[in-house]
Amino acid sequence: LSKKDFMNKKVLVTAGPTVENIDPVRFLSNRSSGRMGYELAREFANRGAEVTLISGPTNLKPPSIIKKIIRIESAKELRERVLEHFEDNDIIVMTAAVSDVRIKNYSEQKLKKDTIVNLEIEKNPDIIKELGRKKRVGQILVGFAAETENLKENAIKKLKEKKIDMIVLNDVSREDIGFEKEENEVTIFTSKEELRLEKNHKRIIANNICDFIFSTFF
Ligand code: C5P
């Protein structure tokens, strides 16, 4: 029987990639299967939390224990939905791989070879940074970082600059873990602690992340 340590807690989880349309047939996206976020959402719900899952396009079947699932495509839609639910939640887990950029002018017609080279891109809003500013006392903001170099440095920088309470770092330069894989190996950082979770199934990693959140913040 699973423990119900997140009973009476509301948890918002974002998962999967965002998709930024270029024209009716092309898009810009990030590598992400959504698996880590879905496993986290499932684990929080198993432990008694009321979970809202906001998901970009994935091939995954949502865990049946999750009653509230919101589908999004672009980072703009993700931002709107997250802001709508932010205040109501105690723990916000931003697992989604948000596209840092979007296309400036979506084309209603399929672009031709000679026009597509002139694509203009612009920055997407940094959602988690906005949440870090809005956060009220007692709310826990969890971020993810997928890095290929200077892993620890980048993770700690994000934690501080974006006012995130805890960041889960993935080394995406490794081929055996992370994107589209069943397994992951991560390091958790808070302002005071660092904890390495050895390579394991994403379901077990999700379980360990929940344990860490509970023992650190509650
Ligand atoms: O800075 P970076 O994009 O690597 O930060 C990763 C974390 O920030 C993830 O938790 C991701 O969900 C979040 N993020 C965001 N808005 C963006 C880009 C990333 O909330 N535009």
Features:
single chain, 218 residues, alpha/beta, Rossmann fold, two-stranded antiparallel sheet, 6 helices, globular, binds cytidine-5'-monophosphate, Coenzyme A biosynthesis bifunctional protein CoaBC, multifunctional enzyme, EC 4.1.1.36, lyase
What's the short story on this structure?
The chain contains 6 helices and 12 strands. The protein has 218 residues and is an alpha/beta fold. The chain has one domain: CoaB-like (Rossmann fold, 3-Layer(aba) Sandwich).
Shape: globular
Proportion in helices: 25-40%
Class from helix and strand fractions: alpha/beta
Tell me what portion of residues adopts beta-strand conformation. 25-35%
Gyration radius (Cα, Å) is 17 Å
Topology-level CATH name: Rossmann fold
Q: How many domains, in number, for the residues?
A: 1
| Chemical compounds bound to the protein | cytidine-5'-monophosphate
Going across the biggest sheet, name each strand in turn. Answer: 5-4-1-6-9-10-11-12
Question: From N to C, what is the helix and strand string?
Answer: EEEHEEHEEHEHEHEEEH
Describe the structure.
The protein is an alpha/beta fold. The protein has one domain (10-217): 3-Layer(aba) Sandwich (Rossmann fold), CATH 3.40.50.10300. The protein has 6 helices and 12 strands. An 8-stranded mixed beta sheet has the order 5-4-1-6-9-10-11-12, with helices on both faces. It has a two-stranded antiparallel ribbon with strand order 2-3. The protein has a two-stranded antiparallel sheet with strand order 7-8. β11 (183-189) and β12 form a beta hairpin. 36% of the residues are buried. The mean pLDDT is 95. The chain binds cytidine-5'-monophosphate (C5P). Its EC number is 4.1.1.36, 6.3.2.5. One of its GO terms (cellular component) is phosphopantothenoylcysteine decarboxylase complex. Residues 8-214 form the DNA/pantothenate metabolism flavoprotein C-terminal domain. GO terms for molecular function: FMN binding; metal ion binding; phosphopantothenate--cysteine ligase activity; phosphopantothenoylcysteine decarboxylase activity.
